[in-house]
Specification:
Elements lengths: L2 E5 L4 H12 L4 E5 L7 H11 L12 H5 L2 H4 L5 H10 L8 E4 L2 E4 L3 H4 L4
Parallel strand pairs: 1-2
Antiparallel strand pairs: 1-3, 3-4
């Protein structure tokens, strides 16, 4: 499986992660999170396979998250509703996301990404 790197090109963390991938000669398919927002089907599969709580998939520092007051609203939503919300707007998804045969990485933490090497 080829690595899928899902990013927002203006995001500084995404730029840092992309540079790290390139410096470590890790091939990837680049995908813009806004132009090609992950679908409900993709997110459902990835969230399940990531073994992370669905809350980790939300960009809690994003303007959209704050505007929609999601900190409060998420408490009362089902997982299906949360995934529908994530699939509705790529800016709600924590980024970057790297889908790999070695794991699913949400956000950029070099010590975790080293599993790819």
């Amino acid at each position: 499986m080829k690595n899928i790197f899902i990013e927002y090109p203006k995001c500084s963390t995404c730029k840092k992660a992309k540079k790290w991938l390139e410096e470590n000669n890790i091939e990837y398919l680049d995908r813009n999170i806004v132009e090609e927002t992950p679908t409900m089907q993709e997110l459902t599969k990835w969230i399940k396979n990531s073994n992370e709580d669905i809350k980790k998939w939300f960009n809690t520092s994003g303007l959209k998250y704050k505007e929609l007051n999601l900190k409060e609203k998420l408490l009362f939503m089902s997982d299906k509703e949360k995934i529908e919300l994530l699939a509705s707007d790529g800016m709600l998804i924590k980024r970057p996301v790297l889908i790999s045969d070695k794991g699913i990485f949400i956000g950029f933490k070099e010590e975790y990404w080293k599993k790819l090497i």
